[in-house]
Amino acid sequence: GTPLHDVYRGRGDFEGYRMQRLLHPAALEREGLQMKHCVASYAERCYEEACSIWSMSCRGKGVATVELADHRQIVQFKGKNNSKVTGEARLFLLHWAREQGLEFVSW
Q1: Is the pLDDT of residue 1 over 70?
Q2: Is residue 100 very low, low, confident or very high in pLDDT (cuts 50, 70, 90)?
Q3: DSSP code of 39?
Q4: Distances (CA, A) of 56 to 23, 48, 60, 85
């Protein structure tokens, strides 16, 4: 498929939403502290390109963290404290996935 851009901004119904790939260990650490989960432990896997980690925000506030395996398969979608994400944020994930040609594996 087409390469994923490091930043994706929602439009229309999803104005204010944003997906951003976390490219550096410091970004993973910040995400883990903000979202209160262990995403910082994925730094080596990201470096080896075994996965990529994405931060979902809405109007600048962290909403969820997404793990893609093989850069095209959504394998995790978690909110703060590893909570389930529902509502509009879940709909935005579905929209982003459809636009980017991603598939859902186990989430």
Answers
A1: no
A2: very high
A3: G
A4: 14, 22, 9, 11
